[in-house]
Amino acid sequence: MLRLPLWHKSQRLRRLEMRVKKQKAVVLFGTTTMAMKFEKLAKLEPLPGRLIPVPAQIRAGCGLAFCTDCKYNERVLSLLIREKISYERIDEVFL
Amino acid sequence: MIYLDHAATSLLKPTAVAKAVYEAILSLGNSGRGVNDAALDAARLIYETRELAADFFGAQDPAQVAFTLNATMALNMAIKGLVQSGDHVITTQLEHNSVLRPLYEMEERGAELSIIPSDFQGRLDYEALEAAIKQNTRLVVCTHASNMTGNLVDIERIGEVCQKHGIFFVVDASQTAGAIPIDMERAHIDVVCFTGHKGLLGPQGTGGLCVRPTCPIRTFVSGGSGIESFSKVQPSAMPVRLEAGTLNAHGLAGLRAGILYILDTGINEIHLQQIYLMQRFLAGVKILPEVEVYGDFSSMDRAAIVSLNIGSMDSAIVCDQLQTDYGIAVRGGGHCAPLMHKALGTITKGAVRFSFSHLNTEADIDAAIAAVAQIAAAEEA
């Protein structure tokens, strides 16, 4: 069995304790391909954020979504439009 | 072994291709299934490969590229996804069974089929193609180069005709992708079907189709898509409309490496070297008594293929002799192109096909010429 050092457990717990829910902007895409295209272009911008599983509070099922701080909403939208990336919608949720 | 069967599959691969597959198989998860790091790495790699393939064939968006197991699957998807009962389809005598059999199947289901003839050298009659167009012509599907003769088809000319008449145009790029540039826009192509394991130098089990956004190919296989889990139907957006189930990310890593190698080396340089080797071989064998070469070599704008027969010898026997006595790997017999064999008069004895890679050497070619000369001399005697 893999034995993790003691500090590993304590660090993980500390990280979990530190995770505070914040309002986030979540972009939903119709295909994985569009999500990957957006992630690549966001990185080039650079536009902070990362791909996450689509939260069930937005839509039950599966798929990828791009999650970022709400303050970047306009930049997200302009990137989507400028690069003609088809997306379903942008939701603001507590995550 | 001297390998001269690159029209069947390219065996001389860049090391980077094998390395990419090795690394991918040890590190990639399932693209679009979950958002763990390994799954995301697979999705990123597949996306990058889509981008490369789209650029390579002149498609405007990576989403226009759907990956398949091979060109046969891509052609089946394009033909069966565009044609229905009552539609008329035009194809050519140069085609491989990967085009002909899906078409015969559609004919059984009520589609009409016209096959444009070629002459004894395998040259296509372009005027007959345009003359065959009817009110209900839905699709023209043809190869970019014959897998038997290597003759190139003028896809820009056919594409123009298709555009003029509002007909979908599907191209089988199995023998040219990676050696001869193909631009969907310039040639007015609606669907390019390609395989990854020949000129693109990738692994077997890779291929795909680049689809113009206005081309409504129906879903061929439905199943897991990584999105819309609770929907009863396959999503309609490309590429997932044509991709169900786990993609071959490990193979696509190799395909990506193959395309990068071609871009780095230069597609024209690769083709020039192939043609140089092909010409060297052709010059050596066409002067031999008893040797009959098939195809039109008046232009070097062609695939690097030379098919021949020696006297009345069965091509399968010649092929076996080349392998066992000389260690030269070629293909004999029938080449899954029954109508081409008919045009060339090689239905009974087939043909011995030599096909060349830019990674073959002059010594390979000279050894092949010497072997053919010896077999021909024995036949003459």
Explain what this protein looks like in three dimensions.
The complex is a heterodimer of chains A (95) and B (381). In chain A, 38% of the residues lie in helices and 23% in strands. By secondary structure, chain A is α+β, with helices and mostly antiparallel strands. Chain A has a single domain (19-94), classed as Alpha-Beta Plaits (2-Layer Sandwich). In chain A, strands 2-3-1-4 form a four-stranded antiparallel β-sheet, with helices on one face. The model of chain A has no long low-confidence stretch (mean pLDDT 86). Chain B has eleven helices and twelve strands. In chain B, strand 5, helix 6 (155-165) and strand 6 form a beta-alpha-beta unit. In chain B, helix 2 packs across helix 7, helix 8 (267-285) runs parallel beside helix 11 (362-380) and helix 9 crosses helix 11. With 381 residues, chain B is an alpha/beta fold. The mean pLDDT of chain B is 96. The longest helix of chain B has 21 residues, at 37-57. Chain B has helices at 15-25, 37-57, 71-82, 97-108, 126-131, 155-165, 249-265, 267-285, 315-326, 338-344, 362-380, and strands at 2-3, 65-68, 88-92, 112-116, 137-143, 168-172, 191-195, 207-211, 291-294, 305-310, 328-329, 352-355. Chain B folds into two domains: 15-265, Aspartate Aminotransferase, domain 2 (3-Layer(aba) Sandwich), CATH 3.40.640.10; 266-380, Alpha-Beta Complex (Aspartate Aminotransferase, domain 1). The radius of gyration of chain B is 21 Å and the shape is globular.
